[in-house]
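Bumping with the actual sequence this time:
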Amino acid sequence: MAATDAPEPAADATPASSPGPLQRRGSRGLRPGPAGAPRTRPPRRDIPDPVIDCAVYVEGRRQPAGDPRDALRLATERNGFVWLGLYEPTESELGVYAEEYGLHPLAIEDAVYAHQRPKLERYDDAVFMVLKTARYVEHEQLTATSEVVDTGEVMVFLGPHYVITVRHGDHSELHELRGRLEQEHDLLCLGPSAVLYAVADLVADNFLDVATAVEEDVDELEASVFSPQRTDDVGRLYQLKRELLELRRAVLPLELPLQRLADGQVDVVPETMSSYFRDVLDHAIRVRDQVAALDELLSSILQASLARTGLSDNEDTRKISAWAAIVAVPTLVTSIYGMNFHNMPELGWEYGYPAVLVGIVVICVLLYRGFKRNGWL
């Protein structure tokens, strides 16, 4: 599914009251916090409310939800589900919904502090999935410091009657995705897992777009490396390999969670959704292969660039050596006749000086022609 840039959080989102810090509460009583220094959370944009949107869907159609904390009860009574969208919530803000929705504290911690690799976790009758998002950063010219791939994260809490999406970064485009899904009532009738499928499909499609854009940069670098002009592309090649590594870290770990969803290994996801997730898995495998091929091609181009740089250096060395050999002839002759001995041959000869000059020129010309014929000059 294609999408445009993610919008700003809705101004009319219902604000949620924030209680004290979230207690680490598991399914059986309190869970002590880990020892050591507490994890720090990166600062987020100044947003009055993390709630982007909240709605209840009954038979595939949107219903007004009212208070997000009361939406689950309404969805359960109507045999529907609630979709709650959050943007970079703090621990206390997400804790408002923890008890009502039965969110596991470990999943809450991952959703708040982010920087997780793609994964799929099961907690009782709920599922927590982490997906890496990627966005291609436009640039006029690729340099040794250009940012090419920008990554973010989307976390999804999935239960029998709810789906909560937590976004980190400005390029997940979930708002537009919600609007498109609301036009597909048959898909939304399949339940909360349809939202998980749509989010995963959006992420995989974005990976394809990013990989295609990166491929254009690789083609540009390849043309530059093999152009007749001498260019220094090692820095740009290395930077593009680093940026491609970011995309690879987002794509490769996603294959196993999608495989589990496609094989029907998750109870909360109905078997009717398996074919949908298999389609997303096919996209992810395609991106994986494309990224691997690009990385291998970049390695080959980098080796070719280094080899070409070595050949250029050897060519310069040969030229310097050839000119040094030519210059050595007059240097040697003039140094001999500069010793000022009285009994040196040809010192008293009338044509000695012009004869030496002619000899020096002839030898230098012969050396120049020989070096030129052998490709040293």
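The tokens above came from a reply further down the thread. The chain has two domains: 51-308, 315-373.
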